[in-house]
Design a protein that fits this description.
Layout (H helix, E strand, L loop, with lengths): L3 E4 L3 H13 L3 E7 L6 H5 L2 E6 L10 H11 L3 E3 L9 H10 L2 E2 L4 H8 L1 H10 L7 E2 L6 H11 L3 E9 L2 E6 L2 H19 L4 E5 L5 E9 L5 E13 L2 E7 L6 H17 L4 E9 L5 E7 L6 H8 L3 H9 L16 E8 L1 E2 L5 E2 L2 E2 L2 E3 L4 E2 L4 E6 L6 E2 L6 E9 L2 H13 L2 E3 L5 H8 L2 H5 L6 H5 L11 H23 L15 E6 L2 E10 L2 E6 L2 E7 L7 E6 L2 E10 L2 E6 L2 E8 L1 H7 L13 E3 L4 E6 L6 E2 L4 E7 L2 E6 L4 E6 L6 E2 L4 E5 L1
Helix pairs in contact: 4-5, 5-6, 7-8, 12-13
Length: 665
């Protein structure tokens, strides 16, 4: 077996590979840019080599710098992770020339499958069903418009070397093709160094389902079931699960066998993923093959018990697969939630900064419950603007889908992240959404169910009542602590009352508390709820048994109460005496400042261009400026008709959140 491998990547996937290598007794080498000098993958590896500036095109995707790191450390093999150089045939060729093993497929397979146009032609020849589209490269926007008209709208504009949702746009008419074509080319060039584009028919209401394959260099191959990846935003997967709640055994078998046919047609060896779109009648169409480890591979590992990274290493070493298709059994159900540094309350725009608090739920493995967190960050670390916004992949397993979802709900509620915007509330909201619970989602789920974006969750009344009871009990504990402060004057003992008015989520609950050593009975109307918890004032996380049901609350202190976050809701909970509540009802509410005549930068990022000048009249929906952050270009548009009175930023400026870009009359 290899004695030392280098991981040509960063973040959570580098940490993931290091864990398996360490378990196998293999030494590891990390590479890092200036921005990642103190990153977790650098800390975990046995050795680390600096490879350049923060920009990926000056560090992580520079082949010569990775080759230098290999020579410095004497690594015998390289695992590329995903993204960066993972599907770059030139990198695999450079390793081969150096006599270093590539922990991935042969160069020929990367070239054939890494290019989406070539892969579709090969898939057709292998008898795999494909989506209608234009297989040739598109030179310019005019040609793209002509081809789109021939295929029929809507169409998908795709970068040939694309992945991870970058370099992709859906266009519903000519104007969107013209605008999206150039933006996709720019993203593809920045992310992959390859701006070639192609177009295919966009199948409406599709599911995105992929098959995991694993092949060795001796002609053996297996498929390890499917992953449902339909919960996507801007073509970027957000939640995945395995198996799919939609497939039946016959469709699974057909998709798996076709995937293996395709892999064998290109002499594939290593782990790979064949992606399909599946319509409502379970007709499936080949999209692409990813010749690398997928981001969502943990859910497959959880239902099969197969460590895919270990298998990749063993295949690269020349070993035969120890598994046959009969050995592959799908057990239970697994969920993965991608925790992104994206603020759902600001249109999911990227958020950067320091993680002032980062406390994932405890990882555990039992016969009925698994919690796994693949991450590349730590408390006190920084989320950089230079890379993908993923913070972690939270995974759960249960004996069935309902159990896996419940485990995910509890794990999300217990995941503490502070210092940056993040999508934990949105992930929680999806877990409680009726369509998701029923398994009836498509790739349009987020667009259809959250058409106006995400502004939090309105919890049902019974859930608010339980939170109110918990907060009343917690407030009483805090009040008792305050009565015990040292140094108080004699004869000034503070009494803690039994009646409290709890206001949250637009509702008011009058509570009466009877406490004992082990907890409190909280009466709301004609309902009495027993509340028990080990929470003490100052704890940021509370697990409270309310009426026999455990709820997990993130707790922050505010005047006369708490800021409570749970199940996707962000609540200000005020706990007052009846007299305080009576007076509070008379207080006017503070209004927000008027920013209607300003274009504010919605995220920390770089101004790519400003499309208007002082004095220009703009129309609703008109593009005003483009901001780049985390490798994505974001077009800022006018919300209404107006005239530009002042331009405060220009191309190349680096802006913070809410910096003023334009002012209007």
């Amino acid at each position: 077996m290899f004695k030392k491998i280098l991981i040509a990547n960063r973040g959570e996937i580098a940490c993931r590979v290091i864990k398996t290598a360490q378990r196998m007794g293999i030494k590891t080498v990390a590479v890092y840019s200036d921005a990642d000098r103190n990153a977790l993958h650098v800390r975990m590896a046995d050795e680390a080599v600096h490879i350049g500036p923060p920009q990926a095109n000056q560090s992580y995707i520079v082949i010569d710098k990775i080759m230098d790191a290999i020579r410095q450390t004497g690594a015998e093999a390289v695992h590329p992770g995903y993204g960066f150089l993972s599907e770059n045939p030139k990198f695999a060729q450079a390793l081969e020339a150096e006599g270093v093993a590539f922990i991935g497929p042969p160069v020929g397979a990367i070239e054939a499958m890494g290019d989406k146009i070539t892969s579709k032609k090969i898939a057709q020849e292998a008898g795999v069903s494909t989506v209608p589209g234009h297989m040739g490269l598109i030179e310019d926007a005019d040609e793209a418009i002509r081809i789109s008209g021939e295929i029929g709208y809507p169409v998908m504009l795709k970068a040939s070397a694309g992945g991870g949702g970058k370099g992709m746009r859906i266009a519903w008419d000519e104007s969107e093709v013209r605008e999206g074509f150039q933006a996709s080319k720019n993203e593809a060039a920045a992310s992959f160094g390859d701006d070639r584009m192609f177009i295919e028919k966009f199948v409406t209401q599709p599911r995105h389902i992929e098959i995991q394959v694993l092949c060795d260099t001796h002609g053996n191959g297996v498929y390890l079931g499917e992953r449902e990846c339909s919960i996507q935003r801007r073509n970027q997967k957000v939640i995945e699960e395995a198996p799919s709640p939609f497939l039946d055994p016959d469709t699974r078998k057909a998709m798996g066998e076709q995937s293996l046919k395709l892999a064998q047609a290109v002499g594939y060896a290593s782990a790979g993923t064949v992606e399909f779109i599946v319509d409502g009648d379970r007709n499936f169409y080949f999209l692409e093959m990813n010749t690398r480890l997928q981001v969502e591979h943990p859910v497959t590992e959880l239902i099969t018990g197969v460590d895919l990274v270990e298998q990749m290493i063993r295949v690269a070493y020349g070993e035969k697969l120890s598994l046959t298709q009969n050995d592959i059994k799908l057990t239970g159900w697994a969920m993965e939630s991608r925790l992104y540094a994206e603020d759902p309350y600001r249109g999911f725009l990227p958020s950067i900064g320091r993680l002032t608090r980062y406390r994932p739920p405890e990882e555990l493995v039992t016969d009925m419950h698994v919690v796994r967190n693949d991450t590349g960050v730590y408390e006190g670390g920084e989320i950089s603007m230079y890379y993908d916004p993923m913070i972690a992949k939270l995974c759960t397993w249960g004996p069935d889908r309902a159990a896996a979802i419940q485990a995910m709900r509890d794990a999300l509620d217990g995941f503490e992240v502070e210092g940056i915007g993040h999508n934990l509330p949105f992930l929680s909201a999806v877990m409680d959404h009726p369509k998701f619970i029923a398994g009836e989602m498509t790739t349009a789920f987020i667009a259809e169910e959250f058409p106006d974006g995400f502004d939090g969750v309105a919890l049902p009344g019974d859930h608010l009542k339980r939170i109110a009871a918990a907060c009343a009990a917690m407030h009483r504990v805090a009040e008792i602590r305050r009565t015990r402060v040292s140094g108080r004057m004699d004869n000034h003992e503070r009494k803690v009352g039994a009646d409290w008015v709890v206001s949250l989520g637009g509702q008011t609950f009058h509570t009466h508390i009877q406490a004992d050593r082990n907890g409190a009975d909280v009466t709301i109307g004609d309902t009495t709820l027993r509340c028990e918890s080990l929470w003490t004032p100052g704890d940021p996380l509370a697990r409270v048994s309310v009426g026999g049901e455990v709820i997990v609350l993130k707790v922050g202190k505010i005047t006369q109460g708490f800021r409570i976050r749970t199940r996707g809701a962000d609540l200000k909970v005020h706990v007052r005496t009846p007299r305080q509540a009576e007076l509070a009802a008379l207080m006017p509410e503070k209004s927000s400042p008027d920013t209607s005549k300003l274009l504010l930068c919605p995220m920390p990022g770089l101004i790519v261009r400003v499309d208007v000048s002082e004095g220009d009249e703009v129309q609703e929906g008109q593009a005003l400026a483009v901001v780049e952050a985390m490798k994505m270009e974001n077009i800022l548009r006018a919300e209404k008709k107006g005239r530009v009175s002042k331009v405060n930023a220009s191309a190349g400026d680096s802006l913070a959140v809410d910096d003023v870009i334009l002012e209007f009359e």
